[in-house]
Write a structure and sequence with these properties.
Helix content: 55-70%
Order of helices and strands: HHHHHHHHHHHH
Number of helices: 12
Number of strands: 0
Distance between the termini: 34 Å
């Protein structure tokens, strides 16, 4: 599971102890809530299903998929279905390609979600072998499902905007710049990402 409330609080408190601005804003907007997901291929499959559609549409597709495959379905269950069956669940040709890529790698034992590499970059590289899973999706999975405390999804627009506001930058930092900025928050960058999301949503004074 992901990073606990206690870990988030401890990480942010440590960072705030050396950063008066962060300490002040943390007191104003409060600590972010944990975002916890179950470890395993289904969490990434839900990510694929939800790409570029609304939450309601993604939920509807997932419910149809579970209705077709069963709630305890395995990768092989999906691989056994034909195009039209999965299309009836709402999966486009592209989503089916991504879903099959994921399920084929798991079924072949080429990706083991219970034994991903310990190194964060190595784990990201492993997950991005899956078609349709880019660096951002891999980072989010490793944060929310594995609780890796130093994940830093620098390509996330809300994180970029949150950091821009917090640091009072003139422009929203691009991914490369945000990765450099984030070095100051290691090894608690995941907690800082969660705070950046919260800060982005918080009303200004």
């Amino acid at each position: 599971m992901g990073i606990s409330a206690e870990q988030i609080r401890a990480g942010l408190d440590e960072l705030a102890s050396n950063d008066p601005k962060l300490a002040s804003e943390l007191q104003r907007v409060g600590y972010p809530e944990p975002r916890l997901r179950t470890r395993g291929y289904k969490t990434l499959l839900r990510t694929i299903v939800g790409q570029q559609v609304s939450v309601a549409a993604a939920t509807s597709m997932w419910n149809k998929l579970e209705g077709e495959l069963g709630q305890e379905f395995t990768p092989s269950c999906l691989l056994e279905r034909d195009f039209d069956t999965l299309r009836a669940c709402g999966l486009s040709r592209q989503k089916q390609g991504y879903a099959r890529s994921l399920c084929e790698l798991v079924a072949a034992g080429e990706i083991d979600f219970n034994d991903l590499p310990a190194g964060d970059e190595d784990a990201i590289e492993e997950l991005t072998r899956i078609k349709g899973i880019g660096r951002w999706s891999a980072e989010i999975y490793l944060m929310f499902a594995e609780g890796r405390a130093d994940m830093w999804p620098a390509g996330d627009l809300a994180v970029q905007e949150g950091v821009k506001r917090l640091l009072e930058l003139d422009e929203r930092p691009k991914e490369k710049e945000l990765r450099e900025i984030g070095e100051r928050w290691s090894p608690h960058r995941a907690a800082m990402a969660l705070f950046s999301w919260r800060y982005y949503d918080a009303p200004a004074l």
